[in-house]
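Exercise 7 asks you to align residues with tokens for two separate proteins.
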Amino acid sequence: MKTIRISDEVWDEIAKRGKFGETEDDVLRRIFSIAGLSRPLPKPMPSRIKKAILRMSTFVRNGTLFVEFENGRKNQWGLPDQKDRDGIRKVRDIAVEFARQNSASFGQMNAVKKALTDAGYYVAK
């Protein structure tokens, strides 16, 4: 690889013609139609595919966990004592599975778990 000195005007022109992530070598290769890149361009990160389709609400009231979707599907489960971790885990898993079956997003399934912990129902301490 060779090193060259260039004027500010030439540098500015290279910068104008460059794309984000390209090196100066990449720009000149493209302008002079020379095959190959000095290094491959970074691949963009894929966006999350799964997004919430239906609004969901989940809350705990009077020892009962409620999960409701905007399309009318809803369910509720009685909660065990707050110290019964195995019982809480069982209800949590059933509620999360209900949410998953109704096309809940990852965040919505986590919201079911958060409703329990916000109400003082912990699986682990």
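Second protein for Exercise 7:
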Amino acid sequence: MTDLSVFSNLATIGGRALYSGISLLVLKQQGISSLQFQSLREISAGNVHIAENSQLCYYNTLNWTQLFRTANQKVLIRNNRGHKDCSRDRMVCDSLCADTGCWGPGPDQCLTCRYFSRGRTCVNSCHLHEGICHEKRRREKSKGMKRSMYKYQALISGSVPDPCKDFRRSPQKSLSLSGSDKGGVPSPEIREYANGSVCVECDAQCDRADEESLTCNGPGPENCIKCLHFKDGPNCVEKCPDGLQGANSFIFKYAEANNECHPCHANCTQGCIGPRLQDCIGWMDRTPLIAAGVIGGLFMVVIMVLTAAVSMRRKNIKKKRALRRFLETELVEPLTPSGTAPNQAQLRILKETELKRVKILGSGAFGTVYRGIWVPEGETVKIPVAIKILNEATGPKANVEFMDEALIMASMEHPHLVRLLGVCLSPTIQLVTQLMPHGCLLDYVHEHKDNIGSQLLLNWCVQIAKGMMYLEERRLVHRDLAARNVLVKSPNHIKITDFGLARLLDVNEKEYNADGGKVSSDRNSYKFHGH
């Protein structure tokens, strides 16, 4: 063993357990030529005794007091190799070492450096503006890499080849400055900054500047003059954050054309290529699915609308058929030999549960009229009807006679006569007829008097005359024809109501009260007694 390099990483001798007051003792080591305590910076307690080492050099160059913590510590050196013999064999400190001495040969054994230090090695200057190679920096031109990174390896024997020769490309990553154990030489492309007298390499994310320009002005990625890859805020980064865990959520950013990182849209969850919501990677991937979903949704909406329309149409058709079945006369028998239609008078006897009165429309000589709803038993259709409740004062009438007269009224089928749909034999007799939407002619004339012309009046007169002529042909006299007893289905279509109602009076009554006077009920003489 020619040195004590096994202790090269020893930085402090604490001196907690002393041998005769000595904390460092090197005695009678005849094969040792240097101590090589290159990391030792302090001897906290105890003395130093170095003696009887016939081959030991460099010991006499050291300023031992610089290592002592207290003033009462001492150094005893005797009977080692002489200074002249060491100088003759060139076993002296390197020129880059300061006057404080060294532990052995080479710039990495200096106690302190004369100029600058790079790791454990003393150097003339830091690589502020250029790497070790002074030739123009080589660049990687392959796609996806901005710069080429080079490395070289010192030989195990200690001979360091020219770093500008035979270096290999490493396109995947750059070599950080670590320095070889023997020479402490950095990668030929690494740039540094000077922290006092210490050379510190710039961060790996700093882009190497051109010659005569600084690459960085401090440690860390935030002190780069220019970034090698991307810049995220003040820091240089290898890539923009993509799913980095933040304080409240994951962070996603994208790179602009100037290689600066900017936040993605707040709703992006898988990264992005721009600031908009449409630039989100997940959004772009889902675009075909969203389009398909929208189209499918629209298709379903159209199907639902068509289904609803068809259902409503079928319901309306069913309702119209039901209304036609209940409101219109259907010829179910063949014509008689005479060619005239047979008497198909049908009088429905309705249950009180089938009728629902809504509101009063008015009252007359025979009772009160309600607007109501008729729901035939076993059906779902709701038919708007007029419900006439006869006054009890109209006199008693046998059921058979009443039904005969009601059957005659139900047999009256004419476009200008309101048809009797049915009778409800509740405690008070209820007649159910068609409901005319515009009410009676008297109220209609009062309401639209400014819009009624002679042509409309003449049309009404013709329709009333046709209805009355039909009643005359059926040998039925109305006995109370008035505007209040004419109902308006539409402005061009009116119908006569309450025909034959007076015949439901008691057979012994010769006259009945009507609005404006009394009417005689004699079949051969119809007289009106005005008041």
